[in-house]
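Known limitations

Files may contain more than one protein. Parsers should not assume a single record per file. Below, a two-record file is shown to illustrate correct handling: read the sequence, read the token line, then continue until end of file.
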Amino acid sequence: MTAFPGAGSPAGMTDRFARFVETFPYDRIPADVVDRTKEILYDGLGALLSATSPRYDIGAVLRRFVQETGGTPEAQVFGTDLRTNCATAALINGTFGYYCDIESHHAGAIMHAIAVVGPAALAVGERMHRSGKDVLAAIVIGVESACRVSYALGGAALYARGFHPTCVAGTFGSLAAAARLYGLEGPALRYAFGLAGTETSGLLAWVSDETEHSRPFNMGLASRHGVFAAHLASCGFSGPPAIFEGKYPLGHAFTGRWDEGALFDGLGTTFKMMELTVKQYACCAFIHPGLDGLLDIMQNERVRAGDIRQITLRFPAGGYHVIDGNALRSHCAQYVLALAAHKGVVDFDDILHDRRTDAGIRSLFERVTVVGDKELDRTYPDLYRSVVEVETSTARYRREVTYPKGSPQRPLSADELDRKFARLTEDVLSSRRRAEITETVRRLEEVSDVGEVARLLRRDG
């Protein structure tokens, strides 16, 4: 970890990273990274479109906002017939992208990158009539930027200070993607980085918002901020040219630390895209390993919900407070585990609507304990290693889960991804439109103008 450079330091880190964003070509992205990017985008679009379902109130609120604020019709608001300027489209689509809490994430960076970077890249790509290859490269570079900035700042340190890592660091991901597609280079790109740093924000205060509106709004903000910064710079607007160093650097402002090595080690040769985990459950990723362990016990030991006397979840001490008794159901391990024990699944409808009206779920909720385990801190936040213990009247069962289903170590198959996409979009898309989206995303590198993708993501029917 480096000390902060002084006020007179040259723009070394910012300049070096900006050159990577500016010059790294599509042809140097390995084929497996391209394939994974298409899978992650496809999965993210399923989560995004699910949020536009009429059963969720957020869609009507955001549509009203777009209608009342207007904007040049240059980018699609997905799941609607509305078009607006690309920054507002990124804001709305980014908010939709995280709403159902079932898109991919990067564990170590504590980063939901695709919810931020995907909407930004598609909005600017549509405005600028960029090709599928251009957008794929922008998404790869954007995810890389978001995750590396989060590591440099320290995702866990951001959490500890009440900041949402995906909003703070994710802004640099959307900026990188948008800057690629706007064609920014040289000083204009450095200024765009500075403007993104000035804009970035995102508090964890949403934990007290039971509507689940402000939680995904952070991702919308990050997506919009990056697009806005890139567009301003493309118009000739200047900003701080060295946001990663100097008298008031980014790290000093947010966490008091900055790990230069995390920003550059393996840059251009290893790709964070390959480290993303696809979610199976609509809730905080911290709870997923414990969920896998609980459901494995219930299935393989033939334990029924009514048999359970006590559930104990051990999670790294550095992060357990996020999921221990959180008032927000999506981030409350007691609620999620009790729900899963009775239903076998965790859908977003179960997060929006309190299922503790069911006496069995309510009773088990009171018998779930979350423990901060310092031994598990050794691998946190890179791994959300968890131990779940289930006690019945006749036995005790224990599972330790390091890698949840959907992680790179235990990936979902193409068929599983298709089934997830279909389940999430069943009341939003016809089977024909769903098939068109699937086919188009899988051949995205062949698409000459991503407007073709945006047209498929309009309201169906």
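...continuing to the second record:
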Amino acid sequence: MVFVPGFALHGIVPPLVTPFRDDERIDYGAWQRIIDSLIAVGVDGLFVCGSAGEFHTLDAEERTVALRFCRQAAASRVPVCGNVGCATTRDTVSLAHRAQSLGIDFLAVVTPYYALTSQQELLNHYCEVCRSVRLPVLAYNYPQHGASDLLPETVGRIAAACGNFVGILDTGGDLKRLAAYRACAPGREMTVFVGPESLLLPGLECGCAGGSATGIDIAPQLFVDLYRAFRQGQREAARRLQALATELGRTLGLHTFPAAVKEAMQIIGLPAGWCRRPIGPMPPEARAELARVLEVLRAQGYLPAAAQRSAAGRA
């Protein structure tokens, strides 16, 4: 899809996990089932090869194949946003070219990791990537797991220089920062996606376009309903759903990311497999707390139907 001004990503866009077999190879059959179940619930897009997808553990060929597979699996039912960010600008541009040739709809570019890049270096990096493709590009700011923090003023400078730079997915957890991102480019409104589960409703209330929280992989109906309740002005319902989303997000932080997400999917019967090592399973006490919260969501009807039966069978 070639970028068309005014065409924007919005709503609930789950950051897909990458399911692995016991030998740590990608399980494409399981991935198709996960993607189909998310689309059936009504998500507004798919985010591929983000941090929840363990992109940092995939080699270059695996990332290319993952982008191709998810684009084909989505089958044009929803837009696909693929993270092509790498540690170097050269590798990022190369993967961006491949993603464009595969028909990916939007590119996300995580900030270069490990290196303590300056804001000027981040500006140069994003401008080079944006100018190398025709697709709309979003920055992906994940300061907790990278070395760089992309500031709103830098985002505004990138937007001023590159017309296909459309916004940012931010996981930093600062509500004021989300508002600053939206308004950082004079004459343009940046598309901003919220990462943390706890900030979805507050982010929407301050004008964010949607959310891309890892909890969506586990309870997509919860987040779709929250977004719809907000859009329809049902504030009380939205606040109730936000409380459930916040509690789910809390438990996903009880072990090394994203192990708790996959643990939850295992508990409720979704075929996510485990993380690539060195990340291991959750400790028993943390897993028990996660299972308790999942039981609350099950009772509320916010687990996928097949998963609810599976969870009930394991009880």
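Parsers that stop after the first record will miss the second one. For reference, the second record is described as follows. The chain has twelve helices and eight strands.
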